[in-house]
From TrEMBL:
Keywords: Glycosyltransferase, Golgi apparatus, Membrane, Signal-anchor, Transferase, Transmembrane, Transmembrane helix. Belongs to the glycosyltransferase 47 family. One of its GO terms (cellular component) is Golgi membrane. It comes from Musa acuminata subsp. malaccensis (Wild banana). This is (wild Malaysian banana) hypothetical protein.
Length: 475
């Protein structure tokens, strides 16, 4: 894990040459002298902290990490101005938190109530120290990020918390970097979309309507126009009725396939992983020669928009040796079967379905089966800090449907290259793991870190929009 391949994508010398040169000389001289252990501290007397942080990142210095673990968490914190010292991660201290989050106390019908938790009629939140409401298994689980983020926030101030805390809940919204809206919208979409006569609208639609009314009347909303609000809408059809009204917010999504670009886009919103459904390959020593299937695909064929490419690929690949290409969902044949298949495969196909993303990618990562991604419009979680080309193969749709292209490409990957990608998959798999309690650099922490990296951009928007608000008498 120590040899992380993650690097910030900024150029080393963005400014004119002379500026750069002076800057580097200033930095490099003390740096060379004191690199061994106290380099960073010494340099910090010479230059302002934020500059050092970016230059150190640019010079691609290995970050010191006592446990030899991934450097990703530290690199991410470098990008944030409140970067706390290492020992402070063990306890959640709001004044040092990466992200301070205010959470609305929405009534249970918006969150744990959908899971059947009733509470005692008095409290809004379950006492998760005593019992954590159960999330059902099955396909709903893939969009369960709402549940994991909310649990993490609820537990963020526990004094005996062992999990790291990228995000800490604060009671006063004026102290917060962002405002979290704890609506389990994917679950609401899965469970409450049916209209039950005599009602004329579904509970899902009703909840969204209530939510918009609630939010737009809050002083937190009025202060920012919603720009610092976080709305989870991971299921592609969730928030269908409210998304236009809530478009200034930061959405947490699986992809942008069903959004207008002005409502959601990669600059404003966050892409989060699906929770994988098949088993993590624990202690995987199943290398190149042990995996007998060269290329694996299992998925639905009857897709609204993406079906045609799946059919074309099926026709191209059906005669190929050591290719498993089968239609049928996980539900039909069980996750055990798919787990066995993916754990025994070198490459796993991810073809755009009815939306650009699918949880197949995250199943492949958990299986350490090198993903072959055929989805021109896919957006990937935390891609600002994670280089997917180190462990995925991307193929343009245009190329993939050429006869022979895909198989030639895959057969040309050497055992050494494959093994490198396989090793990298084992290093990164934790970034895609949702769990409670959350662990260091798992999906929960990674998503919070991704949100934290957006805070300066949000603040810019909020400040610009409030230029005239203080002494405005026209309204
Ligand atoms: C994985 O390996 C560790 C350490 O060798 C062992 O303790 C653990 O039981 C193994 N887990 C599985 C599922 O094999
Ligand atoms: C389901 O599993 C059976 C038994 O392993 C297998 O023969 C069949 O092809 C699988 N079906 C699909 C759709 O993959």
């Amino acid at each position: 894990m120590a040899n992380s391949n993650i690097q910030p994508h900024r150029p080393v010398c963005p400014k004119p040459f002379f500026f750069c040169l002076t800057f580097l000389v200033l930095l490099v001289i003390p740096y060379l002298f004191f690199w061994v252990d106290s380099g960073i501290q010494v340099v910090s007397h010479v230059l302002p902290k934020k500059k050092i942080v970016s230059v150190i990142a640019n010079l691609n210095t290995p970050s010191r990490n006592h446990e030899g673990e991934s450097t990703l968490f530290k690199e991410s914190t470098f990008l944030h101005q409140h970067a706390p010292a290492e020992e402070e991660f063990t306890q959640c201290n709001p004044s040092n938190a990466l992200l301070k989050v205010f959470m609305y106390d929405l009534p249970p019908e918006f969150h744990f109530g959908i899971l059947g938790w009733n509470g005692d009629g008095k409290s809004v939140w379950p006492n998760i120290r005593a019992e954590v409401p159960h999330y059902p298994g099955g396909l709903n689980l893939q969009h369960s990020i709402d549940y994991w983020l909310t649990l993490d926030l609820l537990s963020s101030r526990f004094s005996d918390r062992s999990a790291p805390c990228s995000a800490v809940r604060v009671e006063d919204s004026r102290e917060a970097d962002v405002v979290f809206v704890p609506f389990f919208s994917s679950l609401s979409c899965n469970r409450h979309s049916k209209v039950n006569p005599p009602e004329t609208v579904s509970t899902n639609e009703l909840l969204q309507k209530k939510l918009v009314e609630f939010l737009t009347s809050q002083r937190e909303w009025k202060r920012s126009g919603g720009r610092d609000h976080i709305i989870m809408a991971h299921h592609p059809n969730s928030m269908l009725d409210a998304r236009m009204n809530l478009s200034p917010c930061m959405f947490i999504l699986s992809d942008f396939g069903r959004y207008f670009p002005h409502v959601a886009n990669v600059e404003k919103d966050i892409i989060a992983p699906y929770k994988h459904l098949i088993k993590t390959f624990v202690n995987d020593s199943f290398g190149f020669d042990d995996r007998s299937i060269l290329l694996y695909f299992q998925g639905g064929i009857h897709r609204k928009n993406g079906g045609s490419i799946r059919k074309q690929l099926f026709n191209l690949l059906k005669g190929e040796k050591s290719v498993h290409f089968a239609f049928g969902s996980l539900r039909e044949n069980g996750t055990d079967e798919a787990s066995r298949g993916m754990h025994s495969s070198k490459f796993c196909l991810n073809i755009a379905g009815d939306t650009p993303s699918s949880n197949r990618l995250f199943d492949a990562i958990a299986s350490h089966c090198v993903p072959v991604i055929i989805s021109d419009d896919i957006e990937l979680p935390y891609e600002d800090v994670l280089d997917y080309s180190k462990f995925c193969i991307f193929v343009r749709k245009f190329d993939a449907i050429k006869k022979g292209f895909l198989m030639t490409l895959i057969r040309s990957v050497s055992r050494e290259d494959w093994t490198q990608m396989w090793q990298r998959l084992k290093e990164v798999e934790g970034y895609f793991e949702f769990q409670y309690p959350s662990k260091k650099d798992d999906a929960v922490q990674m998503v919070w870190q991704a949100v934290a990296r957006r805070v300066p951009a949000i603040q810019l928007k909020v400040h610009r929009s409030s230029r005239f608000s203080r002494f405005d008498v026209s309204t």
